[in-house]
Write a structure and sequence with these properties.
about 750 residues, 22 strands, about 45% helix, extended
Length: about 750
Amino acid sequence: MKAIIHKIFGVAIVLLFFSLISNALKADDLKPVRLQLKWRNQFQFAGYYAAKIKGFYKKAGLDVTIKAGGYGISPIEEVKSGRADVGIYDSDIILKKDGKVPLVALANIMQSSPYVIITLPKKHILKPTDLIGKSVLSAGDQGWNIFQAILYREGIKSDLIKIIPRQKDSEEIIEDKGDAVVTYITTQPQRLKYMGYNPILIRPVEYGIDFYGDVLFSSKTFAYADTKVTNAFIEATKKGWEYAFAHEDEMIDYIYSLPGEKSYTRKEFLKDEAKELRKLIMPDIVEIGHMNLGRWQYMLDIYKEAGITKQNISLKGFLYESEKSEITEWLKPLSYAAIAIILLIIVISVINWQLRNQVRIRTTELQKEIESRKQAEELAKESVQQIELMLDSANIVLWDWDLKTNQKTFNGEWFNLLKMDASEIGIDFDPFQLIHPDDLEKAKETFKENLSGTRKRAPIQFRLKKANGEYVNILSSSRVVMENEQVIKISGAIVDIDEVKKKETELLKISEELMQSNSELKKFAYIVSHNLRGPVVNMSSLIEMYDQNSIEGDNKIIYDKINVCIKKLETTLNDLIEVVSHQSIENQKLTVIDFEKSLDEVIVSIETQIKNSKISILRSFDVRTMFYSRSYFESIIINLLTNAIKYRSTDRPPIIQVSTTEDENYIILKVKDNGIGIDLNTNRKKLFGLYQRFSPTIEGKGIGLFMIKSHIESLKGRIEVESELGVGTVFSIFFPKNINS
């Protein structure tokens, strides 16, 4: 029996030896991984360069080849075709995940998308609605889906914007090949500024669209073929990014030394790019590579709402899940040894099977228990670290007041905020002595409410005194801990809002300055309109007195041009006087308006226009009278009727319908015509603007609707319009019943 045991033990030792040798040899083999970049070499990919040149990939057992991108190179096609193992793409990867080659997201590098729309001031594009009828340059669908989501949120149809393939970077808008371009905020604004231009940016986040950017992805097959390789690649990449941000100048020098970089970029551009990337990646706040399932779902929901993707698409299997393989990885090299040990146990178990079996079972249970405790401790430690990081980043003061012992405790932010020494906080320390005298009563009242248990969790604002005697504005919230219906402890949080209050003060000051400026502008308008009146009338009179028959040749041409200029100046001045004269309502007398009578008076005043146009005016007054300014009301009716006459249709007999109704708060006047109509999709926002005209073939100054709106709003009313091309237009005016309230 002993001889058999010795032979089996010898075999086990031999197997163990060869197992260790085999795994040692395998450890020296590097796993090849091909990484396809999204664009040409730049700081956008500094983390990957750092991981390679600093040996992070090699230490992880990987031989990584970094493939630069460029025009016509799609990271998605490179991965799906097998020419690359891992690629970099934007948040639109969620729309490409399904197909013959399923894709998975491994890690997210940018917490916010770098895509913006860039344009130049001369294009007069300040917001998404200004893009209607314009041309936008885009490199395929990269970034465009994000702006489709913005257009959806703003109620704009994307087919109203012309999309042009982008061949270069933002320089193409300088060459007037397009009105705007979809590109990266990290590089292109800086390039345009260097060229002497001052670009205008439309950022998705300003319109409620905040998506991920630069997502690491691979095929599902590659990701799960060997999770050890995938995990190693992700972790080494994170280290690379940490190194890149800690050694920016070193990485900039390296990138600048790459072939072709000097002809494309400058070191200053790379520095600016690094600065912008830090804002998007946020390495000091969020762990590099972090992805959140809820945020991916939020992005997918927006794409569904906008009709960019199908409703039945889901996130199932899209986010890479690292297998918990740490234990199996260190057990794997001992697989042969395990077989030998099992054989040895079998032989020994013949001698004492029950004892060994019980020991093995108990050992397994203890190992599982230890492993479970370790995992729980690691999770708890990670959670504590995350909470501490969040609190440190947010600069939040946490405090506790134990009413049983009168012990008061504060976290480190308390001392940073007030510049106090920890030795000053004892049992006898009175926090109320730091509160501003004007805020003290409010703070004590809140404390009393806490003690009685009636305090709601609404935060309060007050000022605390710092060690140097200055006061800082804070926002404080608190909660109580009760025992036997008695408050035994009060806990709370304090946030420094001093900068917010300062900004608030600045805004108030700016508001006052704007009001003052507005007043000065009104005075200026009055001075210009009235003081210019006399000289213009004199010039007009003098030129009319001049004998035209005595002028010949070039003098006749000059005379005619001077006459035209004076007429234009006189017209503009009259418009200015009319606009200024209606900006104030102090001198407006309110009286009873009879709709029937007032309409008849207006019709008599424009009788010639009505006869020449052969227009029919119908009326229906459910409300007969109202209290209003007679001059304003007549001006409103005259402008609406003459506009309906001017914009009548030649395809049918023209009709104007005037009617009144009422609701709880307003008397509603409607003027409806069957004219040519107005394109509200194009003209709604400028409909009531000064000097706005909507048909080049119809004469008019373009101030009528401006005056109507000014009249109505000055007396607390409003105007609405409905119109359809080829059908007609309805203007609805809402006159307030209680105009003096």
